[in-house]
Design goal:
Helix content: 25-40%
CATH superfamily of one domain: NAD(P)-binding Rossmann-like Domain
Number of helices: 9
Shape: globular
Strand content: 15-25%
Radius of gyration: 19 Å
Structural class: alpha/beta
Bound molecules: nicotinamide-adenine-dinucleotide, uridine-5'-diphosphate
Order of helices and strands: EHEEEHHEHEEHEEEHEEHEHH
Largest sheet: 7 strands, parallel
Mean pLDDT: 96
Low-confidence stretches: none
Length: about 325
């Protein structure tokens, strides 16, 4: 049991990560306020929580201020998949920057502890591998991913400035590619794309030659890491990497998914999107030392659970 009856705000709470976080916080007896504008999230993700006495849903857009009385804030509001965050890049930048300002202002006023869902994208196309928290990154400031990457970087800056200037109690986690049930079937991310393609008999679209790598963390492991970070001693603000360090090429992932689904789909190759990072793998030693955290679910098992979920929803 991590908490006892705290009032906890989860922005982006109807999204993929946010809905799993709400599940954990509600099941542990907290009073949970889920805030979302339903851009990429859906009521379906939190339907089972509606009607519970310790769960409340607020439709609100984080680019506008809001005043609430809470003890803790998890700031997750922001589309995470490239197709979604590039659809309206100005809005993505606003959500990251103005959302951070509004939530940090709220945290300052009500003295709430606040955790930012930052991203491995702040490392850009990394020239160091694996990525440690003290690596400053290699980010294009004017490309199609910049609204998200630079938005997340600016949010980190704001978090640390509010911490230094106003003594706001902050936590920053840098999340690496996470997957699992409740991913949006059309979000364009590699795991959801490949599973949907495999289950519906379409060709699996590998971008580039498929030799680019990613490291995939199963949702339950990630949520555990976020909860531990919120409970960490106050002298540890982060940033801390949360992800699974097992690294796979995208071609490996396609082949695994074909095997697990038993699909006869073919693999086809499509152009690599601009600024697509070639390699990504977290160094998670800091999370191990400070949070006693490491992921428990390997890709094979996590994919099997995710495939079962998509079989039900498709
Ligand atoms: P998601 O798109 O499923 O969830 C984001 C949620 O935020 C959605 O419910 C969406 O409707 C809501 N939202 C977006 N803009 C909003 C706004 N202006 N006001 C209010 N709500 C808004 O994505 P996710 O995968 O659950 O990601 C959650 C957070 O974690 C994001 O901040 C993302 O950047 C971060 N993150 C995720 C991953 C990953 O692999 N999933 C990796 C790194 C970082
Ligand atoms: N990718 C792919 N086929 C797809 C979707 C994605 O080959 O249908 C590739 C993409 O180019 C990238 C990797 O898979 O190299 C991970 O993409 P995703 O969008 O899931 O996450 P991110 O690029 O943000 O890590």
């Amino acid at each position: 049991m991590y908490y006892s009856q705290k009032r906890i705000l989860v922005t982006g709470g109807a999204g993929f990560l946010g809905s799993h976080l709400c599940d954990r916080l509600v099941s542990e007896g907290n009073d949970v306020l889920c805030l979302d504008n339903f851009y990429t999230g859906s009521k379906q993700n939190i339907r089972h929580l509606l009607g519970k006495p310790n769960f409340e849903l607020i439709r609100h857009d984080l680019v506008h201020p809001i005043f609430l009385e809470v003890d803790e804030i998890y700031n997750l509001a922001c589309p995470a998949a490239p197709v979604h965050y590039q659809y309206n890049p100005v809005k993505t930048a606003k959500t990251n920057v103005m959302g951070a300002i509004h939530m940090l202002g709220l945290a300052k006023r009500v003295r709430a502890k606040i955790l930012q869902a930052s991203s491995s994208e702040i490392y850009g196309n990394p020239t160091e591998h694996p990525q440690k928290e003290n690596y400053w990154g290699n980010v294009n400031s004017i490309g199609p991913r910049s609204c998200y990457d630079e938005g997340k970087r600016c949010a980190e800056t704001l978090f640390f400035d509010y911490h230094r200037q106003n003594r706001v109690n902050i936590r920053v986690v840098r999340i690496f590619n996470t997957y699992g049930p409740r991913m949006h079937p059309n979000d364009g991310r590699v795991i959801s794309n490949f599973i949907v393609q495999a289950l519906t008999g379409q060709d699996l679209t590998v971008f580039g030659d498929g030799n680019q790598t990613r490291s995939f963390c199963y949702i339950d492991d990630l949520i555990e890491g976020m909860l531990r970070m919120m409970c960490a001693p106050d002298d540890f603000a982060g940033p801390v990497n949360l992800g699974n360090p097992d690294e796979f090429t995208i071609l490996d992932v396609a082949q695994k998914i074909l095997r697990i689904t038993g699909s006869h789909s073919k693999i086809i190759f499509r152009p690599l999107p601009e600024d697509d990072p070639m390699h990504r793998r977290p160094d998670i030693r800091l999370a191990g030392e400070r949070l006693g955290w490491e992921p428990k679910t390997d890709l094979e098992h996590g994919l099997a659970k995710t495939v079962e979920y998509f079989k039900k929803v498709l």
